[in-house]
Each structure stands twice: as structure tokens, then as C-alpha cells.
Amino acid sequence: MPVVRLAQYSVLRLVLPIPESVAAQIHVGQTMKVHVQALNQDFEGKVSRFADALNEQTRTMETELDFENRSNRLIPGMYAQANFSIDQHQAVLTVPLEAVVRAGDGGTVLVVNHQNVIEERRIQLAQDGSSRAVVLGGLVEGELVIIGDRSAFHAGQKVIPKEMDEGAPAAEGNR
Questions:
Q1: Rounded distance, CA 14 to CA 45, Å?
Q2: How far apart are CA 100 and CA 132, in angstroms?
């Protein structure tokens, strides 16, 4: 058992698990805000380093933030909620996550062409939101994609498409 414990609290380090979908957008020197509920206060820190590799079980990347703490208001062990901004795209093409089968940086979707025949199409993806994926290429606005159980469909199959309302849940048998 130690007699004396020395500690420096003027700079504190926070280790965050960053989700895979935004890990590529993290850079050393980037600022992030955290909210410490116990103090009801926001603090701004800078990314000092990151793992540059994903944890295969959690699909996250460990990222370290350093915070100036000259006032010693932050105490090791306090809980913090991190907020950071990622690249936001204006007027981008997105598809529901249920339409995409992921494969590396891209994926595939089933598209209904002008002859109402299904085609499997490779697409390039940027990032996933909570319910939609940003499409960088391989698909153009206005094309119809199949949402839901892909096992009921195959390339070359002729279908009668039914468009769905954006807010409506997918119904069984909608093809």
C-alpha cells in the first residue's frame, strides 16, 4: 500500500470508444466537447492520439482527448458525455440501412430497373446514420431500391414495384 500518491490534474486525459462509422474522420488536434453532468458544465478537449485500429468485438477505435484542468474542477473518475462534429454533407443521396448489404467500404443494393427487373448493384458508401447510409457512387437519385428481406428476391427477377412512404414501416409482402 503506497504511503504517498503523486498526481497531476492540470491536464486530464479521457479515453473514448469512437464508433467505426466515424473513426476515419478523427484527427490529432481535433477539438471535442464533453459535458460533465456532475458539474453541469461543458469542457473542450483536443484529440491527442488514437489507436488507428478498430476493436473487432466492439467495432470502435480508442481515442484519447486531453483537457486543460488548471482550476482542478475535473476529478478523475467523473462521467462525461462526449459531443463531436463529423463531416456533414449537404444534399447527399441516402438509402435506408435495410436496403444495404455491407462489404468493406461499400456494399450492394437490389435495384428495380426501368423494365421492372431486379439488378444487384455495387455501391460506395460514406457513413451510416441511425437509419440511413450515405451513398457516394453506384446509384443515382430516383432509382428504386428494395428494402427489407432480400432473400425473397434475386437478380433478373421481374417485379411490380410499390413505392413506400418515407415514414411508413415496411409491410410484409411489399415488393
A1: 9
A2: 9
pLDDT along the chain (175 residues), means of 10: 82 87 82 90 91 86 91 88 67 85 84 95 78 86 89 92 66 40
Q: E strands within the chain?
A: 11-19, 31-36, 41-50, 60-68, 81-83, 93-96, 101-103, 106-112, 118-128, 132-137, 144-145
Q: What are phi and psi of 23, to 5 degrees?
A: -55, -35
- Domains of the chain from N-terminus onward: 11-83 (2.40.30.170), 93-152 (2.40.420.20)
Which residue type sits at 58? T
Neighbours of 121 (CB within 10 A): 16
Grid coordinates representing 149 are 428481406
52 backbone φψ class: left, alpha, beta (φ>0; ψ -120 to 50) = left
C-alpha distance from residue 121 to each of 34, 38, 60, 113 (Å): 41, 50, 28, 11
